[in-house]
């Protein structure tokens, strides 16, 4: 119990609490977190995950993800380099310790964009983040957004929709998430997100002014 208390205290002393974004693929996590990082670039930093999926047009290696082979990813997992990792829609994803440390070293709020397996695994660590669930207004809207995004084949789209059904149920489980945002109208959802994180945003702004 004392160990847990001290490691929590230590993680609090190490900087502001990270923020975990989770929710079905296509709900709008990236859209919302990119808006947040654009408006508050000196407050938030993104934990760049590793993945074995191919980059989408416009995505940049080292910025959106570290794109790696399955062999390289498995080796890094076996070496204990990851806080959590999961297989989603046939591809491997993971949060490296280095990705989180790189953001925390700058005293920024570390943003993680992870699936629900990642949420379950992060809950077993001492990271102590704020958990934000981003949900679509309906499955029909989610499917339209994913189709309109034009990033998926029919096969990967079906896998993502299947995972989304489970994910939407998970989002309703009590005591998992601190904040639930239904991303229907983007501006409203963004306003709710800023409001929910306002205390942490102000703390980081204040700390950077006094340093
Ligand atoms: N409120 C909204 N209204 C309409 N379209 C939206 C809204 N939010 C996001 N979108 C669009 O929906 C699509 C999916 O959004 P986004 O890529 O941000 O989802 P995501 O949750 O990050 O998905 P993934 O987990 O697959 O990365 C994008 O094309 C985005 O522009
Ligand atoms: N458990 C983890 N999940 C992750 C990580 N990085 C991203 N994700 C989740 O994967 C799906 C699909 O992402 P996409 O970019 O291929 O659309 C989505 O739910 C992300 O939240 C991670 O490091 N760990």
UniProtKB/TrEMBL annotation:
Could you tell me the keywords of this UniProt record? ATP-binding, Cytoplasm, Kinase, Nucleotide-binding, Transferase
Q: In what residue span(s) does the Guanylate kinase-like domain sit?
A: 16-198
Top EC class per UniProt? transferase
The keyword Cytoplasm appears for this protein = yes
The keyword Nucleotide-binding is annotated on this UniProt entry: yes
Q: PROSITE patterns, per this entry?
A: GUANYLATE_KINASE_1 (PS00856), GUANYLATE_KINASE_2 (PS50052)
Q: Enumerate the SUPFAM superfamilies for this protein.
A: P-loop containing nucleoside triphosphate hydrolases
What EC identifiers does the entry list?
Answer: 2.7.4.8
Q: Which chemical reaction does it catalyze?
A: GMP + ATP = GDP + ADP
What is one GO cellular-component annotation here? photoreceptor inner segment
Subcellular location per UniProt equals:
Cytoplasm, Cytosol; Photoreceptor inner segment
Matching entries from InterPro entries are given as: GK/Ca_channel_bsu, Guanylate_kin-like_dom, Guanylate_kinase, Guanylate_kinase_CS, P-loop_NTPase
Entry's Gene Ontology molecular function annotations: ATP binding; GMP kinase activity
Q: Main site of residence?
A: cytoplasm
Q: Family per UniProt?
A: Belongs to the guanylate kinase family.
- Tell me the NCBIfam families matching this sequence: guanyl_kin
Subunit and interaction comment = Monomer. Interacts with RD3.
What protein name is recorded for this chain?
Guanylate kinase
């Amino acid at each position: 119990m004392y160990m847990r208390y001290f490691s929590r205290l230590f993680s609090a002393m190490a900087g502001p609490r990270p923020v975990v974004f989770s929710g079905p693929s296509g709900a709008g996590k990236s859209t919302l977190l990119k808006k947040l990082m654009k408006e508050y670039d000196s407050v938030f930093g993104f934990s760049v995950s590793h993945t074995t999926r191919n980059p989408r047009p416009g995505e940049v290696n080292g910025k959106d993800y570290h794109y790696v082979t399955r062999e390289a990813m498995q080796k890094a997992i076996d070496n204990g380099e990851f806080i959590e990792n999961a297989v989603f829609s046939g591809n491997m994803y993971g949060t490296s310790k280095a990705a989180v440390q790189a953001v925390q070293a700058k005293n920024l709020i570390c943003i993680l964009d992870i699936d629900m397996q990642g949420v379950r695994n992060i809950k077993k660590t001492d990271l102590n983040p704020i958990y934000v669930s981003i949900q679509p207004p309906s499955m029909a809207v989610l499917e339209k957004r994913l189709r309109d995004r034009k990033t998926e084949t029919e096969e990967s789209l079906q896998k993502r929709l299947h995972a989304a059904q489970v994910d939407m149920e998970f989002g309703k489980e009590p005591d998992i998430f601190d904040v639930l945002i239904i991303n229907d109208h983007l501006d409203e959802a963004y306003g709710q997100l800023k409001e929910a994180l306002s205390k942490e945003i102000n703390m980081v702004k204040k700390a950077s002014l006094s340093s």
